[in-house]
Amino acid sequence: MFSPAARKSNHGTLKDRNHSPRAPDYTPTATLGGGRKASFDSSIPNRPKTGTPAPWASRLSVLARISPMKNSEKMDDEDPIQPVFVGEFPQVVREEQNNLHRKHAPGQACIAGGMDKGTSISWMICGSRLFLWSYLSPASSNKCVILDIPSNVSQNLDINRNSNLGCSWLLRVISWDYGNNRNLQRQLKSAGILLCNRKSGAIVYWPDIYPDGGADPVTHLESLEELGVAVSLGNGKSPFRRQHGLSGHENNLIESISFNSLIATPVPNKKQVCIALASCSNGELWHFKCGPGEICPKKVCDSILDSSSSVTSSNQAIGGMGYPRSLIWRSPFFSLEEHNRQFFLLTDHEIQCFRIELTSNFEVSRLWSQEIIGADGDLGIKKDLAGQKKIWPLDIRVDDRGKEITILVATYCKDRVSSSSYMRYSLLTMHYRSGMDFLESVNSHERVLEKKDPIQVIIPKARVEEEEVLFSMRLQMGGKPLGSAVILSGDGTATVYYYWRQSTRLYQFDLPYDAGKVLDASVFPSLDDSEAGAWVLLTEKAGIWAIPERAILLDGAEPPVRSMSLKGSSKEVSMEDEKRNFMKLGSVDTRRTSSEARHTADREHDNYSGTALGAVRDEVAEGLVSQLFHDFLLSGQVDGSLEKLQNSGAFERDGEMNAFAWASKSIVDTLAKHWTTTRGAEIVALAAVSTQLMEKLQKHQKYLQFLALSKCHEELCLKLRHALQIIMEHGEKLAAMIQLRELQNMISESRAAGVTSQHSGLEREVSGSLWDLIQMVGERARRNTVLLMDRDNAEVFYSKVSELEEVFYCLDRHLDYIISMEQPIKVQVQRACELSNSCATLVQSAMHYKKENHMWYPPHDGLMPWYGQHAVISGLWSLAFFMIQILNEYEIDLSAKSDICSHLEVLGDIMLEAYLGAITVKVELEEEHKALVEEYWNRRDALLDSLHRQIKVFVDAQIQDSVDDTPKQKEMILRELSANLLSIARRHECYKILWIICSDLNDSTLLKNLMHESVGPKGGFSYFVFKQLYENGQFSKLLILGEEFPEELSTFLKDHLDLLWLHEIFLHRFSSASKTLHVLSLSEDGSSILDTEDKIKPGYAEAELMLPERKRLLYLSKIAAVAGEDANYSTEVERINADLMILKLQENILELLPNEEDKQKIGQRLLPPGDLIRLCLKAQIPQLSLKAFDVFAWTSSSFRTHNRTLLEECWKNAAELDDWEKLYRFSAAQGWSDDDTFRVLEKTLLFHASRRCYGPKSQSFGGGFDEVLPLRRDNTKPPNLKDSAASVESILMQHRDFADAGKLMLTAVMLGSTQVDVGTRDNVALIG
């Protein structure tokens, strides 16, 4: 299977040239399983070096090659791209296998098995016994459930005979743990098992297998014939076989009807009840209701499956024998809220989507179907192409999101030139069209799916296989690398497909002759649901193996080069070759933990993008560092080390990838040689753990001595500060891990004193939250590094010292798993305190190490400490927030509250210190840090505020229990309980808590001391105190406190002018007080009436100033200005007088207003000069119109300039209030003399306005009106259309009566101005 098409040219020559000696005739100890025959009479021509040679290749048998040595004991020069052995079968499984092999002839023992991805359960059937265990846990700590298949099921089944192709059993695990995170569970608490025999249709259902095998199974023994399944299709050969004359085996799968696929789902709200759906090879679909009492089968209505044009009756196959091929749920995830589920069914030419109602009737209805093999190639695969004879959809898979559908397809082709036949294997990936993935039903002719990518050809030309071989193939998706797929075949082979760098890569998992078949493949689930893990495979006899991602990327071969079947695999290696390998390689093992971890990091950095030369230099440099350090340990000499390392490029790369940093990492992450997984989790109770950690610390100290003596430390400190920082942090983490181990010992001893002797030490360990955290971190490391999968979680945790940040990462992401809300509140408190103590121990130990060894550290500018990383801070906050919630939301006793508060104080202080370090580094690097600072402030306030509330509770409780309940006694208790909180708030400038504590203690001395200490933004703590006093209306205390903090109070009162002038008078700053009073008296909505463009800060916001109050403030301002007597005090006094005049004008204007409503609306509120002028113009009263000119006079030159248009409106208004046309007619009719004219004009508004603005006795502030608006226009300049109102004369010329009465208008203006001597009127008569 999966082999390239045979070539006729020079095959024999190659075969002869590569022929190897024939193996001896004896049978090896571990016999072949599944009826497979080992071929020892020929070797493989042109076998590539890449691929899957026997990955261990050190001993004769695969069972012997699974070395008991640990990863740390293995040589560093081993190939890291080989498959990795990650787990042995549980001992009971191995014993049952041995018993079974002794009872049966070689190849005849029935062994079947598989893996369930959703629950991470492996299962294996040996004879009539079913074994189930988790493939995530190492064998030493793994629990195996043993179930006996009922004898009445196996009576009529030939279960003692193995199947040549595929597994004769279908098994599904139904988890009842709906609410739990299954990725975190190493062992299910409740699950059911559904077992179905493909050929007979017999079904066995165990409602719950936990604990200890659970309840008795329920069986259904009706055969397929009794269920109504048709068993005959003519002569028993498929159309493909009849057409092409392909021969079949004696026990051909197609000659009998069998179940092809089985899926199952729990039924909501019904205890231990599930629904199973099974597809039959003759085209029928059945569903089975399985409960603790019975199994009820039901055939799905024929019309549901009647979608193929070839369907004529319920007994006829859908398109061909062997179909429908596969069943799969649309989404792998299921919740109790769902009352129906959708599933896909794969037929010989289309995908059908169904929905089953999870109610009492369990109705099945078809939602849609879409053809994937037809005349339209855009829909999927185009058929009837030249040379194409037949197409088989073999299996279907859906991704975890339920969005993408992948189909494995085999195509039988014939070359028209050479007439040779071959098979083509490909993958078709479909996804939903836009907006179609949420539809419950669609039009029968509407397309739901479309091709995501072009069809990916796996093997373009492979040898022709029997249909039974094709139907034994299965597809698995979801492992690393992302987008890869595993193709399993019934003959026991597994091939990994991956499309990488514009080419198809194939990797065949290939074990020697005695390993048996590959039974199934799955994926190591991620703890974070972020991405899948490595591929993991269950073998028949050699345990569980994993394929590292790097092996697939670098060891895969292109399809034309590589054989993918048993023929051409390493299982054909001869015994002589095995012996030569043994003699040559000895006991060299193939796995290298440090290399695997390094390649993971390199993948993130280089992404396998052509950095081979750099990687080689890094390997050389690291090897040289390790060799020189080893020589130093032996001889104590470092002669020439610096020059050698410089030449090797060891100083070229900074950071984690530096050779010195890697050497340090290898020291602290070394796995213990004398630890063994056979002893399970009890290993952590031994002194060996602490001893190993101390040995690492001592070796790391010697490594630092080596760096110092060789002068590499100086070079690193100058050029590679980050690398040196990492090296020193390895020492910090080692010291922290040692202290954590001591803490765990203390917890274990303490817990041991409170339990009976019948409890084992392991049970005492497991009962703590620290132990659960250790297990989780170790589990995460094991899943991320497949080379560690055979190790115990605790062993991995105490070995991977450099990844100590993972402790806090798991706290952040999975705290709800470590401390469950379902636990009693007392237990939650205990577990939270234990975790808090553990986190504090880690960080404090690291800080202590840094303090003691500070001379070794590089300058810290811009270097982030490991405990300042986001993951660490987030983990600390998650735990702290959980403890805050307990304090705020639960009623717990005082002792429990006291425990939480004491631990929370320490944990919170550590977290806040980590925040400060992170913020400092970001500031030094000039990176964005505002969001981090804001987060720091918010979490600091929430933490300390919660602690303060609890202190008040403790104080009240102690007062109630005390005989002396005087205020002094309460103060003493409060002072004592607040000491730690005060210290934390002091260091982290939590002004709110400092203020509250000082207020509670009524301690002004403490308050002043804190104000002197804290000088921060806007004055620090003193600013906060002033703000509190101001908001509380304690103005006298505020001003008194300002006597000791004059400058700080001045800074604060800049925003509060109502008190600033008092403080300035106290400081004898009279001129400043005058200006403050002046601004305050005229302020409104943040602006001064002096200039609408001059904005000031709002003052006296509590109550709006009335006009009398403003006048008083102006008088005070005038007095202060006189008292100050600065250089400009006279100008300031003039300005104050002008503003007083404006206030008086407003009072007069309000008295003259005819509209009472306007008076009430304005009241005593200050109006800006512009509004006051408009109010006068709006009244159309001559007296108010003149008041508008008075307001203009007492403002300022800048105001008149900026409001010139308004001034023009005043002149226009003045001209409109007199009837100039009437005056003109009277003067003409009556023949007025000059004196009569002057006498009449003196009564006009223009005359009075001109006298107010331009007369000899006119008064104004800041210059005259002629600076802004001259009385007469300048005739020497050409007229400017844009400035048509450049003078009062120009404004009057725009009046409608100017043509007739213009002479009178100008005479009135000139009569009132300073340009005419009113005592000599003869000159006025000449105007015009």
From TrEMBL:
One of its GO terms (cellular component) is nuclear pore outer ring. Belongs to the nucleoporin Nup133 family. Residues 1-56 are annotated as: Disordered. This is Nuclear pore complex protein NUP133. Keywords: mRNA transport, Nucleus, Protein transport, Translocation, Transport. InterPro entries: Nucleoporin_Nup133/Nup155_C, Nucleoporin_Nup133/Nup155_N, Nup133-like, WD40/YVTN_repeat-like_dom_sf. Residues 1020-1157 form the Nucleoporin Nup133/Nup155-like C-terminal domain. It is found in: Nucleus envelope. One of its GO terms (biological process) is protein import into nucleus. Residues 79-545 form the Nucleoporin Nup133/Nup155-like N-terminal domain. One of its GO terms (molecular function) is structural constituent of nuclear pore. Gene3D superfamilies: 1.20.58.1380, YVTN repeat-like/Quinoprotein amine dehydrogenase (2.130.10.10). Pfam families: Nucleoporin_C, Nucleoporin_N.
